[in-house]
Design a protein that fits this description.
This is Putative DCC family thiol-disulfide oxidoreductase YuxK. It is built from 8 helices and 4 strands. By secondary structure, it is α+β, with helices and mostly antiparallel strands. It is globular, with a radius of gyration of 16 Å.
Amino acid sequence: MDRPLLLIDGDCGFCRTWAGRIARALDSLGARPIDIDAASAVALDALGVPRARTESEVVLVMLDGRHVGGAQAFAQWLVWAGGPAGLLGRALALPGVRQLAQLAYRIIAANRYRLPGSTAACALPAVRRPHSENVSQA
């Protein structure tokens, strides 16, 4: 790898749309690029990334092998990008801001099937199940 790799849910239209939009916006600012790929299309074991992690959040694999997920994946992407984006990324990693960013990430992830660019595949597994499976039978 010569640049970080962002692992996304390749079936999710929301994830594909927004990762692409962010990458194009950063590219227009002259930022350093990253690679973006579907988690299902790469050898996760070779990267040291548990499949279960990629099923619940985006994961950024750094050049040194570290991997970060959720809001901090985006923060580290921005730091890697450099320039003004890097400053924003550093701000997202500050105590307090980091927790708020992660909360915002979790809310967006849980509702991504309702947001622009989404498809039915965007729902997280618990949301995809029919309601009757989520309710215990009395």
